Amino acid sequence: MRNGRTIATMMAALLCALSLVASADDSPRATGYRPPTRGVAMRRVGSAQKSRLLRVSSRTTLPSKWNSCEQGWVSPVKNQGNVGACWAFAAYATLETQLLKAGKGEWDFSEKNMVNLHGWNLSPNKGGNNDVAASYLLRWGGAVAETNDVYKSSMSAWTSSPLLSPAVRVQHVVWTDPIDGSQESSDALKEAIVGYGAVATSMYFNDNFVRNESHYYFGEKDPNHAVAIVGWDDEYPTNNFKNFPPGPGAWIMKNSWGKSVGSNGFYYVSYHDSRFARLYNGAVFVPAKYDEDYDAVRGYDRFGPVWISDDPHDRQAAVFTATWNEWLDAVGVWAPYASISYEISVYTNVMRGGDSPIDGGCLAISQSGTLINAGFTTVHLETPVALADGTSFAVVYRQVGCNVFYVDKKYGEYIDGEYVVFCDPDISKGNTYFGRVSRSGSVSWSDCADIDGGCAACIKAYTRSTVSARTGDAPFETDDGTTYLSDLEHTNTTLFAETAGTFGASVGLVGANGRSLWTSWLAGLDPSAGGSAEFTVSIDVSGGVPNLTWSPDLGAARTYTVWGRETLDAADSWEQVDVDDIGTSQFKFFKVTVGQ
């Protein structure tokens, strides 16, 4: 990688001008990094108080050299041409690396689609950053395959982009701390490179500070370029740089100017570079795992965490309405630091537009844990919450011991003397809230639409439809429960009422007798049981033996009764079933009543 040819003459026309992005089609290359909004700058200040990224592996010592390319993890170098899209190339470099590292093959994603459809009020040549990329990816705007929206390397040839379903979804964004010259911060970044393969970061690139494959800048200009860090070399000589730094060592970065520059498109950047990975946090965009194949995402934070609120609030809430019969499987939240303890609670049947996000609702689930990394995390619910079409539900997110929250807020700044609004969310009352606990322990809520000109809490809800296509049935079974699963309310109103207005099994399970068991995963209030409470019920089969479980456990003072029926015929009656006999009974549909 140290045999690259000199690129000074090729870059001088643009980079000596110290411009943020290229705007003329005849520029040889462009940069395009736009420093983040004030909220992210505050995030950088906060990082000095507590490291956001802990070590991501159990490694006790780091090698003196590392290059993710040698592991086969790094996708080929691309060329952004004269479009200010380096930030999109850097973000996708981390995602493509993650997929290679996971053995998912080589992917090539469309930077053009991201640049056109990120939603911020920034034209394709006005730049971006990790937050712009995150807003696009986390609302499932992408990642879109390059073959479906091919990149144009010149603004004169630039075209619009279609709205497409993502080929790969991003469910986690890991933030890394800016390095500050300390060994601790450098080691944390190295651990992230080893653990994730690549980290998207920012730098100030200027050809006056380049020699062949090396770059060392020691000024105070704001970052103007985004790249991906893929390795390091502690022993990289000082005399390889045009201006000798005070010590050896360099980061290895993947650029987006093609393979004809640097060393096949890669550069060594001095450990002592005054802007490389220093001013703002880095990011890793992590693809969805095998169990994160959700059907829908809901959220009011269309533009991501563009502002920090450090008011004395300790929780946020977002209220949504189910649009079909579905499960709430996971919740997406942002954390400003690593190792933050959280509590997530979900309330169903809430009244929208109230003074509180949980007015009239019933607690469906509450769970706690630790957010390992700073950034965006998809938290899987321990028990999915079943939601009937039209059910309003609230997600309450609490960061224990931390009142620094991210919200989506209108933001703009002056560009060339003109005030430009980057993002202007549709902020409506009754959607998101902030809550604070009084000395008495009660929680008072404030509508985010009324806070400091209006904002939206950064909370996402991930759901799956309760209807799954059946590929087969148990032996000799020809009837299925598809109608029951998909739209019981309209096809059998009696059965719908008898099961407390709830419906929707997602799978058919084979019992010990070879019959197909259909579990309704009931969630709601049984009208026949006075004083009943909300609950969920499931039937699963382990080793051919069916098991009935429910959550939450309402205590010894409650009694549970299982009822079954074989058909959907309204004339068919419910019969009480012994739990131990479920697997050998003729019943295919079940309900559970709960009483005092």
Q: Could you write a compact summary of the structure shown?
A:
The chain has 596 residues and is an alpha+beta fold. It has helices spanning 8-15, 38-47, 86-101, 111-117, 130-138, 183-196, 482-491, 493-498, and strands at 65-67, 170-176, 199-203, 210-211, 214-215, 225-233, 250-254, 266-270, 282-287, 296-299, 307-309, 315-321, 326-335, 340-348, 362-371, 375-387, 392-399, 405-408, 411-415, 418-423, 432-437, 443-447, 456-457, 459-465, 508-510, 516-518, 523-524, 535-542, 545-551, 559-565, 575-576, 589-595.
What does this structure look like?
There is one protein chain. The chain is of the alpha+beta class. It has three domains: 8-285, Cysteine proteinases (Cathepsin B, Chain A); 291-465, Jelly Rolls, CATH 2.60.120; 482-595, no CATH class. It contains eight helices and 32 strands. It has helices at residues 8-15, 38-47, 86-101, 111-117, 130-138, 183-196, 482-491, 493-498, and strands at residues 65-67, 170-176, 199-203, 210-211, 214-215, 225-233, 250-254, 266-270, 282-287, 296-299, 307-309, 315-321, 326-335, 340-348, 362-371, 375-387, 392-399, 405-408, 411-415, 418-423, 432-437, 443-447, 456-457, 459-465, 508-510, 516-518, 523-524, 535-542, 545-551, 559-565, 575-576, 589-595. The strands form eight sheets. Strands 1, 3, 4, 5, 6, 7 and 8 form a seven-stranded mixed beta sheet that branches. A hairpin with a 2-residue loop joins strand 28 and strand 29. The chain starts with 7 loop residues before the first helix and ends with a strand. Mean pLDDT is 77; it is low at 1-28, 41-58, 467-492, 498-536, 541-547 and 554-558.
